[in-house]
Amino acid sequence: MNVNKWLKQNTSDLLGQTIALTGATGGLGCELCRRLLSLGAALILLDRNKEKSDALKAALIQEYPYARIAQVPLDLSNMSSVRAACDALEKRDFDVLIHNAGAYSIPRYVCDTGYDVVFQINFVSPYYMTCRLLPYLRARGGRVVAVGSIAHNYSQSDADDVDFSTRKKASLVYGNAKRYLMYALHELFRDEQAACLAIAHPGITFTNITSHYPPLIFALIKHPMKIIFMKPRVAALSILRGVFEKSEYRTWIGPRIFDIWGKPSVKRLCSATDEEIARIDKAAREIYLQLSEK
């Protein structure tokens, strides 16, 4: 795939645009930062690890000396941090919010919200931030880009176990959280006129999120993974396309071939019934209301 040719055909100047993104220090995040800066955008890095964020900012400025980069601390597992980040963003000028950060196989615990940490990081916090910042984005004609996953296909949601706290398999827990994020945001933006939404997914690529295997297994599979699956610089293009193109209701942007390889294309989201989607939407709105009242 000719990345430079794709960029010329599918992107345009972002001068005057400011983009806030979570998970900037990860593999996909770093690639997104470089692509966005090359198009003239200013960035707001929303990251938990200050040292990594500082190092990334320094590296980006060395590569793009005139880059405009701000930083806002954000720990998606902590609602106090999430609320503080929203407070900070409301005082800044930004046009696009990219929910790129994610957590797959990590130590499980219950957050102060009462939800499992994987569900909190991948759904609760991004959804809360979107709802909280939506009035601001409406006023600017802004956009939300949420990174989904093909893992959302692995299971159906469970009204009796919303956050899959009783499940052990990482792919199911992560997939359920992404399922909530993708469908809940589509319902939130269903009749939205002023702001817009894009749901994008990178397919399978070699990033920090794939390093959860035991060390011996990871050592054996990491090189084949780098060969078989798309590199982050290519996988990030689906998310970048979301900066320029909104998702129509119940569609998403991702690799064309089996949702794993190839150029970004638009496909229908048809993995859930209307009944399940309505249940997800209801639960999501109740969670936001619950957290807004605290």
Spans where pLDDT lies below 50 across 5 or more residues: none
For the termini, the CA-CA separation is 49 Å
- What percent of the residues sit in helical stretches (DSSP H or I)? 40-55%
For the largest beta-sheet, the strand count, sense and barrel status come to:
6 strands, parallel
- The main sheet orders its strands as 3-2-1-4-5-6
* CATH fold naming: Rossmann fold
- Gross morphology is globular
Number of domains: 1
CATH architecture: 3-Layer(aba) Sandwich
| Rg (CA only) | 18 Å
Percentage of β-strand residues: 15-25%
Mean pLDDT score: 92
Compute the number of helices: 9
- Sheet/helix structural class: alpha/beta
What's the level 1 CATH class?
Answer: Alpha Beta
What is the H level of CATH, i.e. the homologous superfamily?
A: NAD(P)-binding Rossmann-like Domain
Write structural notes for this entry.
- This protein has 294 residues and is α/β, with parallel strands linked by helices.
- It has one domain: 3-Layer(aba) Sandwich (Rossmann fold).
- It is 46% helix and 15% strand.
- The protein is built from nine helices and eight strands.
- It has helices at residues 3-10, 27-38, 50-63, 79-90, 117-140, 170-188, 215-228, 232-244, 274-292, and strands at 18-22, 42-47, 69-73, 96-99, 143-147, 196-200, 251-257, 261-268.
- The protein has a six-stranded parallel beta sheet with strand order 3-2-1-4-5-6, with helices on both faces. A two-stranded antiparallel sheet has the order 7-8.
- Helix 5 (117-140) crosses helix 9.
- The longest helix has 24 residues, at 117-140.
- The mean pLDDT is 92.
